[in-house]
Design goal:
The chain is α+β, with helices and mostly antiparallel strands. Helix content is 40%, strand content 28%.
């Protein structure tokens, strides 16, 4: 089922991450894969420390960046799908 506004997400427990100069580097402890996130991805990653809906993520981002809610949603849904495909986040519902 695709991720939607009401989907609740959280970081996968198998991902180890560290923030360096506003960007995040991550390692999957199960498969030893490495990943990197730029500024906005890092912001989303921080938000996903706790369970959070996609709607709440967009609300947080639109309060800090000059982007409409609709554009935010359009931009982050594919990103979140990639994180899920890579098993970096867990879908809670």
């Amino acid at each position: 089922m695709p991720i939607s506004e009401t989907t609740i997400l959280q970081r996968s427990k198998s991902i180890i991450s560290s923030e360096i100069d506003g960007e995040t580097v991550m390692m999957d402890s199960e498969f030893s894969n490495y990943y990197g996130l730029k500024r906005i991805g890092t912001h989303i990653w921080r938000l996903l420390e706790n369970e959070l809906s996609v709607q709440s993520i967009c609300e947080a981002l639109t309060s800090e960046y000059d982007v409409s809610y609709e554009q935010c949603l359009e931009d982050i849904l594919p990103f979140l799908e990639v994180l899920r495909e890579q098993q970096m986040i867990e879908v809670q519902n």
